[in-house]
Structures are given as structure tokens and as C-alpha cells.
Amino acid sequence: MKYKITLILLLIIVGASTAQMRKWTLQECVEYAVEHNLTIEQFEQDLENAKIDKSDAIGGLLPTLNASGSASKNVGFTIVSTSNVPVAGNQSTFNVNGQVSSNLTLFNGLRNIKQLQRAKLNAISSQYRLDNLKDDIRLNVANAYLLVLSGKEQLKTFKAQYAVTEQDLKKTRELVASGVLPQGDLLEIEATAANQEQQIVNGEGNVLIARVNLAQLLQLTDYENFDIAEEEFAIPPSDILKNSAKVIFDNALTFRNDIKFSESNVQLAEQDLKIAKGAYFPTLTGFFQYGTRYSDATSPLPDGNGGTFTPNFTQQLWIFDGISYGAQLNVPIFNGWSTRNNVKRSQISLEKAKVQFEQDKLALENTIQQAYVDVSTFEKAYEAALKTLEARSLAYDYAKERYDNGLMNAFDFSQAQARVDNAKADVIRTKYDYIFRLKILEFYFGLPISLN
């Protein structure tokens, strides 16, 4: 029994540890961020409200139907509801009234139809806004993910360099102890090791900050147990630069959600102007009403045979019912210029929406032009960093050979090593800078974010 309990506890601990050490891939981070972002949830709620507005607009085209009823007890002077005859004195009467009515807007300058069209456009616009937010989150998550990767690779490089320096430090101590090298060489190597230790500490801090930033984008709070998958990425093959910046921009105009959202705002402003102008027209409303009533003070009625009878409750409801129907026309003549001013405001809003649309297109074009230049620039910077690293590595190998043979002092050797360290860091930095700029440009061309 104790063995079984121990085994179960061990499985629980192992399972919990495995869950805590989950490594997130880029795709998992992007999907999680899109599904759990609070701003996205708010925009989704706005989209639901837009759909409700559409339902309201459809209801505005349908007739209304309402029913009402009342029952009252009157003491003293009153008017009999079934005959409109006044009754004086201290008499008590009981009255019942019921009514069903319906109204339908026959014409109001087509505002109800335009309102429905606007509601449909607003639902589409809200969807564009939501999709655009998701696009921004995907880019931000990809950038934050690459920053973690870059920090991890730099940290590995720092640790590998420190391991080599430790070997040099051990060897230098032996040579100093045997009198082959002066004490100053040992101090120089020790200073280099201390500097590399500081680089490792700073690198670990940078990785931690990058992980926290990524976790915050995912809106996770367990920073200590959050990490990304241990994988290295080479420069992905891409033919994006075979397209000109103009081609990429023209293609982006056809699918970018921010452009569609801006364009839909122009269409909404156009509908608002049409709705405002509709207030210049008369409003024609049709109505229908059915009502009936009962009173216990009703006078006797002829029965058709020369006699009279006092109708009961059900009989009165049938006898005293009635129908009214017709149409009502309201013609706007003067309303303190409110309609005219609303039209002017709508015209201004339309012009502002058009200007904003042109600004958004210009901003997109500038962004794509910058992204296009960045890809070319960072590609060249990465290639230059590789060449620099190759040259620094050859120089370091030569310096190490001379140092090992006592032909170079420790200071010059440490400088050669520092130059290699810096070159390796530049390769990693420019590599991920290039990858991210490449992915941005592909994203604007309509390609999904992927590091494969």
C-alpha cells in the first residue's frame, strides 16, 4: 500500500513538473495570444453589439404590435366608459378597457432602409477592426518570440566563450606558476573572464526580460515557468524581394484589414449622410387599432324585441368593441435648422473619413517601403557580420597560436578574443533582425507568420 501511494505521488510530481516545463512554439504563442487577449474579447463584444444593431434596423422595417388593458374602480362622480354618460352621486363603478394597436412606417425618406444598410456595414467594419487587431498581435508576438530566441543564442555564445576562457585561464595559471609567463598575463586573462561572466549575467537578464515581455503579450502571469521551445532557426528561404515594393503595396490594399476598416468607415459616413438627408422628407405612418370595454354601470340596451337587457361582461366586450385605422403624415417645415446642421455635420464626417482613408493608405505604403528597405539593409548587415566573424575568427586563431608560443601578451590576446565575441553577438543580432524584417514584409504580402 505504501509503495502504491509513493508511486502515485511520484507520478503527480513528475506530471506537474512536466506541465510547468512546457516549451512554447511560435505557433502556439500566436494562437494563444489571439484566443486570450482581453482587447480582442472587447472587440468581439463590440462585434456582437453591431450584430444587435443590425437586428434593430431590421425591426425598424416591421410593423409594431402592442396590447394594453386596464381595470379601475371609481367612487363618486364618474363617466361610464361604455356610454360616456356622467353618473353623479356616491355611486361605485367598475370599468375594464382593452386595446391592441399596430403602427408601420410607410415612408420616412428611406431612413429605415439606409439604417439597415448602415447596420450591415457597421458589422462588417467591426469584423475588420477585430481582424486587424489580431494581425497586430501576431506581429508583436512574433517579434517578442524572436527577441527571446536571439537572447538565448547570445547567452549560449557567451557561455561557450567563457568555457574557452576558463581553459585559457587554467593554462595561464600553470605557465605563470612555472615562470614562463608574467603575472600580468594572468591578471589580463582573469579580467577577460570577469568581463565574460558579466556578459553572461546581462545575457540571462535580457532573456528573462524578453520572456516576461512575451508572457505579458500572452497575458500569462507565471513568468518563472514560461519558456519557449529550444530550437534554432536558420534564415528562411524567401522570394519576397523578387516583388517590388509597389507590387507588395498593391497586393496589401486588397486584403489588409486596416485598409478595409478605414474604407468601411468611409462607407459608414456616406450612409450617415444619406440618413441625415432623409430627415428633409415627410414621414408617412400607417396605424391600426382595435379596442373594447366593460362597465358595471352600463344602462339597459334594447333587445330587438321591444324589450331591454343589461349585457354581461362577455357581451359588453363584443358590443362595445371598435376598430380604427388610417395614416398619419408629418411634414417637416422648420425645426431650428437641426436637420440642415445634421446634414452638414455628416458631410464633414464623410470628408474626414475620406482623408483618414487616404492617410491610412499612405501610412501603409510608407510602412511597406520601409520594410522593403529594411529587408535589403539587414540582409546586407547579416552578410557583413558573417564576413566580419570569419575574419575575426581567423585573427583569433592566429593570435591564440602566437599567445600559446609566448609571442603575444595577454592584453593583445584578450582584445582579439573580445573582437570575436562582439562579432558573434553581431551575427546573432543581425540574423534575427533580418528574419523579423523578412517576416514583416511577407506578412504585408499576405503570407502567414512562420519561421519554417
From TrEMBL:
Q: What is this protein called?
A: TolC family protein
Mostly located where? membrane
The family classification in the record reads:
Belongs to the outer membrane factor (OMF) (TC 1.B.17) family.
The entry lists its GO molecular-function terms as:
efflux transmembrane transporter activity; porin activity
Pfam families in the record: OEP
The cellular location(s) given in this protein's UniProt record come to: Cell outer membrane
Q: Does the keyword Membrane apply?
A: yes
What are the protein's UniProt keywords?
A: Cell outer membrane, Membrane, Transmembrane, Transmembrane beta strand, Transport
Q: Which SUPFAM superfamilies match?
A: Outer membrane efflux proteins (OEP) (SSF56954)
Please give an example of a GO cellular component term from this record.
efflux pump complex
